[in-house]
Amino acid sequence: MDIAQAKRRENIAEYILYLWQLEDLLRALQFSPEAIYTQLVAPRKELTEEQKSAFLMWYMDIADLLHQEGKEEKGHLEHTLHLIGDLHNLHLQLLKLPAGEHYRKTYGRLEAELPRLRSVAGNPGMSDTELGFRALYAAMLYRIKGEGEKPAVADTLEFVSPAIGELAALYGKVERGEIDLFREG
Fold first, then answer.
1. d(CA 13, CA 78)
2. Residues 61-81 as b or e (16 or more Cβ within 10 Å = b)
3. What confidence score (pLDDT) does residue 180 get?
4. Domain range summary for the chain, segments of one domain joined by +
């Protein structure tokens, strides 16, 4: 809960990837309140009992959302998919507006890799932004499994990470009113 809130404020991309990881973790724990408490809450010694209860409730709320959306086995919460949609809308604006000059260069390095990523993802209708997130999440899972040295993982991180990172940073600036999309930045 505290980690998610901090990530949401600081970096929307990290927030989305964190929630996706949490979805998979809750599935691995079979949505069991006892397992969630034992694995995710109890080890947090710095929390009071009241805080531990709040954390458990927050995890269970996410589990309930996964159940409500029929995503007990796979898939991602609509909340994160809507955020990716917002990021994609910003991406489309940045491709045209003056403030996107640097972003267009960063994205240009990724653009040539998109057909390869699309063939791996197997979903030709997916937006470039969602494709980037799915590639980053897959690379993150490979690293967790100790397979982060694979060339495909390195390529993904080399091309996708800078584009998504810059898009997320610009999203935060737009959200905080720190950037004017119609001015060169």
1. 15
2. ebbeebeeeeeeeeebbeebe
3. 85
4. 2-68, 78-175
pLDDT per residue over 87-102, tens digit each? 999 999 999 999 999 9
Secondary structure element (H or E) that encloses residue 67, with its range: helix 49-68
What does the pLDDT look like over 11-23, one tens digit per residue? 999 999 999 999 9
Give CA separation, 43 vs 2, 26, 39, 175, in Å: 15, 16, 7, 34
> Residue 55 and residue 62: Cα distance in Å, rounded?
11
What does the DSSP 8-state code read for residue 75? -
SS3 call for 163:
helix
DSSP 5-52: HHHHHH-HHHHHHHHHHHHHHHHHTTT-HHHHIIIIITT-TTS-HHHH
User: What is the spatial distance between Cα 52 and Cα 49, in angstroms, rounded to a whole number?
Assistant: 5
pLDDT at 119: 87
Contact (Cβ atoms closer than 8 angstroms) between residue 112 and residue 163: no
Which residues of the chain are modeled with pLDDT < 70? Answer: 1, 184-185
